[in-house]
Amino acid sequence: MSSRYKDRIEKFAARLELSGFNAYICTNESNIFYFTGLPGPATLLIRQDGSATLYVSPMNYGLAEKEASQELEIVQLKMGVAPEALLAEILSQLGGMVGIDNLDIDTYRKISGLIGGIDLRPQSRLVWDMRMSKDSYEVEVIREACSISDRVMRAASDLLVPGIRESEVKAELTAEIYRRVGQEPAFTPIVAFGERSSFPHGPILRGTARDRVLKKGDVVIIDLGVKVEGYCSDITRTFYIGKEMDEKLQNAFESVINAKTLAQSIMRPGVSCSYVDDIARDSLSNKGMEPYFTHSLGHGLGIEIHEPPRIGPGSQDQFMENNVVTCEPGVYFIGEWGVRMEDTVLVTEESAIPLTSYPLDEYLVY
């Protein structure tokens, strides 16, 4: 285990002490990866004194033993151990208040039936309060993932010639991710032509509607992301296949880009995420486009493609320094077309810095 994982565990242990927790149990794979760098299912116990124990299956024990630090105790479980039995055993050795990142009511009832007098409290926010502010290593690998995403988007846009199919573009950009030494796609890419671009997450891929051929005059949405060292990037660009577009579509492109630029200009530590979303909606409203903006402005990302903070209506989150978030306004005219522009952005004390940099104004393809 490198020093960064040791430092994270020690920092989190200090948070436990301040919050009155004697220990904390991680069962979420992303949290375990954050604290240990080890992928796959496991259970991690972090104590208030900074010591930690990782419980792993026989299948993952060899990897954990090889990659983890000697400072991290590793316990190999017997095959078939039920999650509630393991949690009950861990809790029986602890006293005081214990936090956990993920606990459903059925598991809690089973644990309560195995041992009594437990003070186990779901407290996922304790981890998120650390994970939302990225450290220098995290920013570095996300920046690399974003750089690869830019190059993959360029390769994908070069394929946009009438006659090509959505599936062909998706296959080529996925292959390009692996060629560019990305770990893997951060999510299944969205490639949507024409009227299919009017669905924010793309069309349902089934039956005869599984694919579509590109035509002149089509709008194209491409949404892709790359993972590097377990961290995600996210970028969307919209293209038009032709030299000139009608006034309605031109207004949509300009309105979305303006809303995005304005929203990013006020992203600062301490600013309300819902306020920034409001600003983007107000900008679109001035152009008559706000009713067609049907999703939140953005989200945090890192180990997962969707993390706090949530940048949308009613969000209780505020930006903090070293948040990595998306900014992705879009408008969708169902049955016609959609326009969305998205970048991955680093929030600093003084500004919001786009980490993806494919030009926003290069949307005409002919």
Topology:
Blueprint: H1 3-19, E1 23-26, H2 29-36, E2 43-47, E3 52-56, H3 58-67, E4 73-76, H4 83-92, E5 98-100, H5 105-114, E6 120-122, H6 124-131, H7 136-158, H8 166-179, E7 184-185, E8 190-193, E9 219-224, E10 226-228, E11 231-232, E12 235-241, H9 247-265, H10 273-285, E13 298-300, E14 307-311, E15 324-327, E16 330-333, E17 337-340, E18 343-347, E19 352-354, E20 364-365
Parallel strand pairs: 1-5, 3-4, 5-6, 12-20
Antiparallel strand pairs: 1-2, 2-3, 7-10, 8-9, 9-12, 10-11, 13-14, 15-18, 16-17, 18-19
Helix pairs in contact: 4-5, 7-8, 9-10
Core attributes:
Creatine Amidinohydrolase; Creatine Amidinohydrolase, Chain A, domain 1; 2 domains; 10 helices; alpha+beta; single chain; 366 residues; 36% helix
